[in-house]
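It is worth pausing here to work through a concrete case rather than discussing structure prediction in the abstract. The textbook approach is simple: state the sequence, then state the predicted structure, then interpret. We follow exactly that order.
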Amino acid sequence: MDGKEDGVAAMAATDQGFDSAAYLQYNYTPPRADFENNDSVLLWKMGCLHRAFTEGDVSGELLVDIGSGPTLV
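Step two, the predicted structure:
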């Protein structure tokens, strides 16, 4: 295999082993996602996105997010 094929194979292997339920549990439940703590990083991130789409120059109905983590479909 060449470098590109190696990369594609590595991505396919990663996708097969990805546990979406574990990802959500780890990143979007306390203590990492403490919705009762105003200093929570998750609340800050969600607030930034909310402001960008309601008050900023961003408009539309679809957000394409590239590179911030796994995509859960």
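Step three, interpretation. The helical segments are 3-17, 20-28, 41-54. The radius of gyration is 17 Å.
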